[in-house]
Amino acid sequence: MAGNKRIMKEFADIQANSPPGCTITLPKEDDLLNWEVTMDGPSDSVYAGGRFKLAVALPKEYPFKPPNVSFKTKIYHPNVSNDERGSMCLGMLRADEWKPPNKIVEVLKLVRAVLAAPQPEDAVEPGIANEYKNERRAFDKNAKEWVSKYAK
Amino acid sequence: MAEDDERTEELGSLEAIYPEFNIDHDRFSATLELAVTPSKPLLVRFIPQVTNNGKGSSYAQAATNGNAHIERDVELSHLPPLHIESTLPDGYPSTVAPKVTLTTQHDWLPKDRLVELESQVERLWNEYGRCQILYVYVDFLQQAVERSFDLDQCADGCLVLPSTTEKLLTDFDEATKVSIFNAGTYDCGICLEPKKGTRCYRMKKCGHVFCLQCLQDFYNNAITEGDITGVRCLDPTCGKDLAMAGDGRKRKRESKRTLHPRELLAMGVEESMVRRYVEMKRKKKLEADKTTIYCPRTWCQSPARSNKYPPIPADLTLYAGDDSSSDEDHVESGANRDGSATSGKASKGPPADPADRLAVCEKCNLAFCRVCYMGWHGPFARCFPRDPTELSAEEKASYDYIRLHTSPCPTCSSPTQKTMGCNHMNCFQCNTHFCYLCGAWLDGGNPYQHFNKPGSECYQRLWELEEGDEGQGPEDGRGFAGGRRWEQMAIEAAREADAAEAAQLAQVEMVAPPAAAAQLEPIAVHMAQIRLNDEPVVEAQVRQRPNGRRRQNPFPARPPAQGQAQAVRRHERAGAGRNGTNQRGNPLAQDDGLQRFLELAQRDEEDGWDSDELDEDDVRFVIR
């Protein structure tokens, strides 16, 4: 399979030209399947000033199967599960929507776009989604609180 | 001599410009093949049998010829080259014009057009003041090619050709496209590496290019996993434009655009894999279609033949599963489903034309009636809807016979009966070698090993029951039971468990008289008592159910499954048939309905029973 070679290429590309606000490293050098990403909260969002750790786990079938993205830093967001997994599943990350030409760069761009503009219709946390839709002020407050509590 | 020099010089300079320029120096003549690739594809209409040899042929003429005008419009990007043969006679260029002959392969360019083009050389030669004119002329032709010789400017708006040339021209077009594609280099979006065109594939519908290796890997993987909807173009943007239509139908639309098996074969996916893909696709459609009828033979149960889902052809490239039309089918059958949800099993009612009741199993070829599930009884017999899980007395006898006197093939379960010979069997359906006595798979190369291994259950029993399975088996009861023996043992065990359970429940019944019944009016109690005598087991079960609403279902045909005993009871009931053997079902159900009515009347309630709760294949409900 095209797997490893492609991952190496992607990793080299992303190092040379990383998406805004992102730093990508391999926690274990010989393990290409587990990437660690540090993402700054978009400056025009409630997550501004926060620094979030994400784990990007590539399945061994990658790129035939989508990567698994999870927040290691707790975040108050309708599209990120509010548990120790911090998992995310929307858009191209869904198994039935993933297409092999998609790249990790695009995934990270998507994640950042979702931080800037949450998608309450596609939420994994309906409670937070409701708050986001109906009581934006409360949502903003909570999100900012969590940023200063967990993401500094 | 000066003229000779001029002619040689002109031919020489043209050769420098067009490397494929072919010169005959003795005759001062040369040939050149001019590739015909118009700036926009040329529309060609192929019509059958143009009688007047293509000359002045037009669509209008052909149509009035009275021929069946099944014409086909094809857009061609590449046409066979224009063959230019020019001779520079003595006296050229100052006094004599050059001679030019133009031809095309398969005569696709109309004669009058060729003549007109040929005449242009003299016009140009005069216009340019009788000088060296070949380069100007070739350039002129090239410009004409760009405009497709203005063939689309005629009355028909397209080039009209006899249909006999269709294959030649489309093949040429295709071959040229392939060779151009093969000469290119493409960046595969999956492995992210540049690949030669020969190792890439371009999708037929959308034109996206990926390398063969990645495509094969991906589709093999998807088909192996059974992910049929994944077999589509892999480009992330592909299909998205269609998906914008509406939210509800979005995903359906998108996933519907799966690839034709022809494309998978073209990109080098193994035929067995492609076949699996086509089979799964068809099966999925059949199973999703509520109108699909299945063969009533319990060992077969294949779908009946249907025009809607033609069988898969041996040549997969001819597979007719057109995805765009199946899209509509899907929506339609969805609407049907909604309709039938309100009107019950309306779709299963007898078809308007009685002859439509005939159904033929696509696998075992059994002809049966789609209403009563009996063997086909001709179009005029009167019959009634029946649940296929219920057997008539005749079928039950047949089923029992099959159970007692056949051994199922361990691979395909086809019942096999031995009329004579040894116990090494060879399945008539799937060619599996197996042992008639115990149903074990046998090695086709050495099937007798099974009977010659000391300690094996069938040791030295190769010739047992030589005269057929109705012959004498050995005294110790090890006689023939085939693979069904375990089934029979299980039924036996379940029956015992059933009896034990019934006895236990009857005991419970004696100790604690039903509280619910006691609270009712005298007549209701009376009813309950009748039922008690009639059917203690079911009664007790109904009462024991914790859910008050559910137990009032007027058709408590199938009590909740309680292990083996229930399974067997159901099995037996299915065998009971309609021929008066079903005393257990109807009176009870009627009593129960009455009982329920009385209960409700007493509490002044409406029937809150929801038809959705009823199981689809609820036997008693269907009979009534």
UniProtKB/TrEMBL annotation, chain A:
Specify whether RNA-binding is a keyword of the entry: no
Q: Name one GO molecular function term.
A: ubiquitin conjugating enzyme activity
Q: Which segments constitute the UBC core domain?
A: 2-152
Q: Which domain of life is it from?
A: Eukaryota
Enzyme Commission no:
2.3.2.23
Which key words are in the record?
ATP-binding, Nucleotide-binding, Transferase, Ubl conjugation pathway
Q: Which Gene3D superfamilies match?
A: Ubiquitin Conjugating Enzyme
**Class in the EC hierarchy, top level:** transferase
Q: Which InterPro entries match?
A: Ub_conjugating_enzyme, UBC, UBQ-conjugating_enzyme/RWD
Under what name is this protein listed?
A: E2 ubiquitin-conjugating enzyme
Automatic annotation (TrEMBL), chain B:
Q: Which residues form the RWD domain?
A: 9-148
Q: Which reaction does it catalyse?
A: [E2 ubiquitin-conjugating enzyme]-S-ubiquitinyl-L-cysteine + [acceptor protein]-L-lysine = [E2 ubiquitin-conjugating enzyme]-L-cysteine + [acceptor protein]-N(6)-ubiquitinyl-L-lysine
Q: What keywords appear on the UniProt entry?
A: Metal-binding, Repeat, Transferase, Ubl conjugation pathway, Zinc, Zinc-finger
| PROSITE patterns in alphabetical order | RWD, TRIAD, ZF_RING_1, ZF_RING_2
Which residue ranges does the record assign to the RING-type domain?
A: 184-462, 188-233
CDD domains hit by this protein = Rcat_RBR_RNF14 (cd20354), RING-HC_ITT1-like (cd23134), RWD_RNF14 (cd23820)
Its pathway is: Protein modification; protein ubiquitination
Query: What Enzyme Commission number does this protein have?
Result: 2.3.2.31
Region Disordered: start and end of each range? 311-354, 542-624
GO biological process terms, semicolon-separated: protein ubiquitination
| Biased composition annotated in UniProt, kind: Acidic residues | 604-618
Name the enzyme group at the top EC level: transferase
Q: Which GO terms describe its molecular function?
A: ubiquitin protein ligase activity; zinc ion binding
Per the record, the similarity remark reads: Belongs to the RBR family. RNF14 subfamily.
What name is this protein filed under?
Answer: RBR-type E3 ubiquitin transferase
Organism expressing this protein natively: Baudoinia panamericana (strain UAMH 10762)
